Amino acid sequence: VNANTFTVLRSIGQGGSSFVHRVMANDNRLFALKCVKLEEVSRDEQEMFMNEIDFLRGLRNKDRVIQLYDYEFTLESNYILMLMEIGEIDLATIMKQWKGREKDMIFVRSYWKQMLLAVQSIHKEGIVHSDLKPANFLLVLGNLKLIDFGISKRIPSGSNDSCSHRKIGTADYMSPESLRDTREDQSIGRAVIRMGLASDIWSLGCILYQMLYDHTPFVEEDLRKKLRLIISESSFIGYPELKVQVKVDVNGIDTIQACLQHDHKRRPTISQLLQGPLLHPGERHMNISSI
Q1: What is the mean pLDDT of the chain?
Q2: Does 34 carry a binding-site annotation?
Q3: What is the pLDDT of residues 230-260, one digit of tens each?
Q4: For this structure, is 181 an active site residue?
Q5: Structural domains of the chain, with CATH
Q6: Given the residues 131, 148, 172, 200, the one annotated as active site
Q7: Which family would the database say this protein is a member of (predicted)?
């Protein structure tokens, strides 16, 4: 990478046109090296990888965001190379290990707080992540950090939301407005989807639900039906008492319900969630669902 050499130790991830290696520098420091084959990606996908580089460069020294140390992008090499901070395990893998087991609310609260702090660090910069899901929180030396900024958007100054020209994200965690709030932008003659910081709050609510119930709020194999369930304000979200686990914390349910309000203006902010009843049980709080 930019004339610096690294020893490839093993592959730690692969997806479509990219793969990630665990590599070691000459001074024995360990890194993650993300490699993207340009010949196998579309123009849109190439823009997503460059978008990620731009955001990670701007978020350097944010201790809740994965660090980008170096990168190389040349048409001659036919690769995009990204030298990044290495983690141990992502939240999706941790949650798979939890599945079917009794939920320890101490760990749930700990990971929930870390997720909130990570998202707060980008929301303060006016950035909507747009693809929050367990796989995009990486455990690094005991702390969860945000990764994958390929479809992230910055909210323009003086605006309340960002714009995207296509529906993007992971269906299980996408907010209703990211699926239905499509308006024509007269300046470019194309439909746009408008999303604000509250879209990330919805995604966090879906993750918290999954942490407690082992599945996301809308379980449906057919993608179109699932998207209709997410969009519909009349869709039912169940909060059953689990058979093999301890009774789900009522503060956890209240927090999920607050995050999964269809009216994005009624969802709590990260700061409000950090002060909410899930993280401060036993204290008096205003009803977070009515914020």
Answers
A1: 88
A2: yes
A3: 999 999 999 887 654 555 678 899 999 999 9
A4: no
A5: 7-84 (3.30.200.20), 89-290 (1.10.510.10)
A6: 131
A7: Belongs to the protein kinase superfamily.
